[in-house]
Protein: ATP synthase subunit delta
Organism: Brasilonema sennae CENA114
Amino acid sequence: MKSNIAMAEISQPYAQALMSVAQSKNLTDQFGEDVRSLLSLLSESEQLKNFLENPFVSLDDKKGVINRVLGDGANAYFRNFLLLLVDRRRISLLEPVLQQYLVLLRQLKQIALAEVISAVPLTEEQQQSVKDKVIALTKAREVELETKIDPELIGGVIIKVGSQVIDASLRGQLRRISLRLSGS
């Protein structure tokens, strides 16, 4: 737990610095797309993540890989930020920094993040219904859904927004019925 708190403490200023650059250059949305792409790549490639976090890999090798991963079309400010993380030996904090940037971006744009867990994939209509309910609940301008599938739910959904949890799953309903019956 201390490790996560320490990581958050160290990554916060870097995320704020990235947001500051993005705002000054009017690139917050573009950086948001770049951040999401890089996070997706890191989640798909354990090898890349291990390479960047390995303290025995030279800084020049890490910079070379970052330049190849980003390609020629990447924003120069974003590229320089990542290279700065390498120079400061903070590239191991890349994921927490990028996650924190997305948190700051959501705050700036008044976007609520809703984690939706369902037994089966939701249709577009169901996703829009969830978004509408979350907007009514949070008064946010928009809602970003992060969907997960859990067949053990049997049916229904669980929606998590910040610290609030709405359990509308069959598993949750059965658990509540069981608690009522055992309490009587």
